[in-house]
Amino acid sequence: MSLPGRLEVFDVALFGGPSLRREPEEVPLSPYQGAALGIVLGHGREGVLRSRIVWSLWEAEDGGPERHRFSQLLYATAQKIGADDLFLYEGDRIKPNLSRLNSDLELLEALVRKDRNKDAAALVERGFLSRLVSPISRAFDDWKDARTLSLRNRVRDAAASSWSAAEGSGDWTVACDAAEALLALDPDSESCLRRVMKARTLAGNPAGAEAAHRAWLERQGLGGRPIDALVTVTADAARSHAGRENESIQAFEDPQFVGRREEMRRLLSSLRQTTADSISPILVTGEAGIGKTRLLNEVCRVAVSGGVTVLHSRCSPLEQQIPLNSLLDALQGSAVTSAVARIEEPWRGVIQDILPLPKPTMVETSYVDPSAVSRRLFEAIRRLLQEVAREPAVLWIDDFQWADHTTTEVAPLFCTAKQVGISGRRAVMRPRQAAAGRSMPGLGSDRRDW
Length: 450
Hints:
With 450 residues, the protein is of the alpha/beta class. Helix content is 50%, strand content 11%. The chain has helices at residues 31-42, 50-58, 65-81, 104-113, 117-124, 138-169, 172-185, 190-202, 206-219, 229-240, 245-252, 261-272, 292-305, 325-330, 334-342, 347-354, 373-388, 405-410, 431-435; strands at residues 10-13, 19-22, 25-27, 48-49, 87-90, 93-96, 101-103, 280-285, 309-314, 393-398, 424-429, 447-449. The strands form 4 sheets. A 4-stranded mixed beta sheet has the order 3-2-1-7. A 3-stranded antiparallel beta sheet has the order 4-6-5.
């Protein structure tokens, strides 16, 4: 209920929505009304061109009957809500009227600014426009998936930054919030688990560290059995913590790497033998818990010391429905940002739409072929990989058996990009999956079974 003389403000939930509330109840929106509202608010304060909305809704050009259809949609929405000033119009650009619309997208930004990373992660985990299960269009689905990924990466990057700052200053309360946000976004990540256990222990909650460890093992279907030495060391440190901060910090450091020297030699040799115009895909397989991740960590540590750029991501079964999630998680850092800057338009705009990169100016993306979204996106990724690989680089994708379908489709691009320096890629498959014959395109040149 609005006070006399004050405009009524409508609460809009995009996460777990879209939904719009006009107190005391929710206003029922049709799928297309909800999609239009989500597109405008989802583009933020700067808004979006009307042509982009029309294309996203109906995959048609903005003109004639489709423009009239869109005007009717806006009119019907205004009538249903009881307000005709929810949007602001600047030429062909449509912006949300934030004096009338209170969006949880703004809430997300506020949570990130205040270092409330766990709350921010819980918000994005509801799913961006997840209520829209009825088909709108393929273009809309592509945009929604890309926006979902961008928002998750926004929270993940903020949480990682908070973790680094809090760990450095010894603020374990803030560090715990950041670590739990990272684990919520990537619940199968062993490194995120390690951060949670470290932060909880040093914040005076070793029992909570043990609980996080047990819950993680249960998610892996391992009961109470640690899967490798690193988790065992972390769990033991949590149990033995008694306020001795320096000893606890030491216990959480990576244990000294012992053994596997022959495997390391073979992997490093494969990387060094890669010529300046080729790529060396490598598949590392083995039973769970034998130390594949620890081995590759050490290999990449040596590679970095030699001036090689390492791009790393970890696949998760819970994120298999997010297109390109496994690949885009790896495409972070200064090397990727520099590579994006070297790509010509329209490909740069395509990459900026799917990666959380700074956009110095508001430039509308030019479409190569609006009816071929996948081809346009794959070509942009190919060009990005080509630019990244102008310098020695390793692309390491962990637990590749959980990679989303789109990443497995784009995988052959790893082996066709030209002008590649020292390059490598690692995908982990459990032997039973390999025996089942699941196809991993482009991974046949070098297989390591350890």
